[in-house]
């Protein structure tokens, strides 16, 4: 009977040990884990620097741009430059220089030919070309690979 008691007591001690282990785990989880999780996931709230933001609003940012308007007709180029200048005159962030230009008569004004022609595209940043291409479909605009925009004659302002 004495041996039966010793064997009978052992499962009780193992169950008690498991129960205390579970209780200690839950206590550690709530005492250490939850506060640590709370601290690591809390978003820090700071005041916005409103005075610095207001100063940025008063800062004038200018974008310097050179634009060439190219057509097959010099008079048409000048007229488009005038219209473009009129439409951009109220711009507060764009400082621009627009000039009229024409291409040599032997060059066809088609995007395919002009894209393949070396030496006629802008080489510096901030320089753009607007090229009137009569061959383009009505009201069509194409952006070229060399800061060049090709547009048809019927594209409105």
From TrEMBL:
A biological process term (GO) from this entry: attachment of GPI anchor to protein
Any one Gene Ontology cellular component term annotated for this protein: GPI-anchor transamidase complex
TM ranges: 20-40
Domain of life: Eukaryota
Protein's pathway: Glycolipid biosynthesis; glycosylphosphatidylinositol-anchor biosynthesis
InterPro entries assigned: PtdIno-glycan_biosynth_class_S
Membrane topology qualifier: Multi-pass membrane protein
Pfam families: PIG-S
Record's keyword annotation contains Membrane: yes
Keywords: Endoplasmic reticulum, Glycoprotein, GPI-anchor biosynthesis, Membrane, Transmembrane, Transmembrane helix
Subcellular location: Endoplasmic reticulum membrane
Family: Belongs to the PIGS family.
Protein name as annotated: Uncharacterized protein LOC103506326
Species of origin: Diaphorina citri
């Amino acid at each position: 009977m004495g041996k039966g008691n010793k064997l009978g007591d052992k499962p009780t001690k193992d169950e008690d040990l498991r129960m205390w282990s579970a209780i200690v785990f839950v206590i550690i989880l709530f005492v250490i884990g939850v506060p640590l999780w709370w601290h690591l996931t809390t978003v820090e709230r700071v005041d916005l620097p409103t005075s610095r933001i207001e100063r940025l609003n008063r800062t004038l940012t200018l974008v310097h741009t050179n634009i060439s308007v190219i057509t097959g007709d010099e008079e048409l180029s000048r007229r488009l430059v005038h219209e473009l200048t009129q439409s951009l005159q109220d711009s507060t962030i764009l400082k621009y220089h627009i000039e009229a230009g024409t291409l040599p008569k032997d060059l066809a004004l088609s995007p395919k030919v002009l894209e393949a022609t070396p030496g006629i595209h802008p080489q510096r940043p901030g320089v753009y070309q607007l090229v009137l291409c009569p061959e383009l479909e009505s009201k069509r605009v194409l952006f070229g690979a060399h800061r060049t925009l090709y547009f048809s004659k019927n594209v409105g302002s």
